[in-house]
Amino acid sequence: MNRALLTGVATLALFAGAASAADLKFPVGEDSRFNWDSYNQFAEAHGDISGQTLTIFGPWLGPDKDLVESVIAYFEEATGANVEYSGSDSFEQQIVIDTQAGSPPNIAVFPQPGLAADLAAKGLLTKLPAEVGEFLSENYAAGDSWVDLSSYAGKDGEKALYAFPYKADVKSLVWYVPDNFDDAGYEIPQSMEELKALTEQIVADGGTPWCIGLGSGGATGWPATDWVEDMVLRTQPPEVYDQWVTNEIPFNDPRIVNAIDEFGWFAKNDKFVDGGAAAVASTDFRDSPKGLFASPPKCYMHKMASFIPSFFPEGTELGLDADFFYFPAYEGEDLGKPVLGAGTLFGITKDSPAAQAFIEFLETPIAHEVWMAQSGFLTPFTGVNPEAYANDALRGQGEILTEATTFRFDGSDLMPGKIGAGAFWTGMVDFVGGQSAEQAATNIQNTWESIK
């Protein structure tokens, strides 16, 4: 479940002016972490768009707006083009209005692929050159996954690449306190089999392995969707995951029921969860990691996406007071290293030479490294320098992305709203409350049938 919190409430456009060298966050050529050759080569090849104006519309406001504009400044400096970026917390509604009214920006930044696919099907997105797909396949870890994520059926019914994936998030993470592991003599599990063995060992030692909380007000249940999605990817080939999120196979298919039961192995055992299984649904997800930091610890592990440190105790230092490891795959399943996550995608909604050039700019390491060196940015681009990341935590999450063999977008965000943001949530609450996986899945499937 993608719960990215957009900063700010303003819906008015916020524009960036033309850049000059003084506006660049990192002076060209002065920081050895950055691939300045990629910048210089791009600049040499794209001086012909000097003076052109490029409009970009996206969801980023506040600090994120400042960060994306710090990247855009290098495009402006390299090309002489002027970029006007506007951000809105109503992006998903406004971009539909603008494109249908015939007044779209040159480029739109989509926070999820479903909306981009809808616009492509209506003929409101421009196909990207085949070379862009080749670039992604060759230069992004799990590149074919990213190409699939960015390819949709157009108005003509033919599937093509319509978006460029940029700025990813990782959900396949388990958080822990290193000192607690060290004191108990526990090691980071390298497989799901080892993770389950560690869970049982912690109980045998008199501890509680997990903190799990599904509470989130009207969105209660969504953290369980991440668990189930990760389990589908760890027990089935990625094509089964794809068929599941589109309901080509029903929600109560035995393979999906099994994945739900795999989540239940952790969440429905009173000995495995702080407060017992009855506390899982009632504990707010923002409070659930607090048990990691209790003395003695109320739990040793907490599965949650990369944003959860925002809810750690004030002053928590990542890498020292808290750290994470990859939610591991089953050694016995031979499905590689799947990663569940989210991300943004750039699509051309009004074609122009400057728009095409900007997509090419996103293929340069510098377009990623500038944001990497600040905050809140991860990329699967294997051509960037990992040393450009601002801290070890980001670098570690970036490594998980670049080591992935399969990447899949958050499944609940790809499902119809009444399923992914409705029946799936409530079904998981019912499941942890005592309902069988098969019954919970059947109830979700019945809801899906009712909206077809």
Topology of this protein?
Elements: H1 36-45, E1 53-58, H2 62-79, E2 82-87, H3 91-100, E3 107-110, H4 113-121, H5 130-139, H6 143-149, E4 151-153, E5 159-161, E6 164-170, E7 173-176, H7 178-184, H8 192-204, H9 222-235, H10 238-245, H11 254-267, E8 302-303, E9 323-326, E10 338-348, H12 353-361, H13 365-372, H14 392-402, E11 406-409, H15 411-414, H16 417-432, H17 437-451
**Global Rg:** 22 Å
Order of helices and strands: HEHEHEHHHEEEEHHHHHEEEHHHEHHH
Number of strands: 11
Q: How much strand? A: 5-15%
Helix content: 40-55%
What shape does the CA trace take? globular
Overall pLDDT level? 94
Would you identify the regions where 5 or more consecutive residues have pLDDT less than 50?
1-22
Instruction: Count up the helices.
Output: 17
* Cα end-to-end separation: 22 Å
Largest sheet: 6 strands, mixed
> Helix/strand-derived class?
alpha/beta
Q: Could you explain how this protein is built, in words?
A:
The strands form 3 sheets. Strands 1, 2, 3, 6, 10 and 11 form a 6-stranded mixed β-sheet that branches. This protein has a 3-stranded antiparallel β-sheet with strand order 8-7-9. 40% of the residues lie in helices and 12% in strands. The two termini are 22 Å apart. The protein is an alpha/beta fold. A hairpin with a 5-residue loop joins β4 and β5 (159-161).
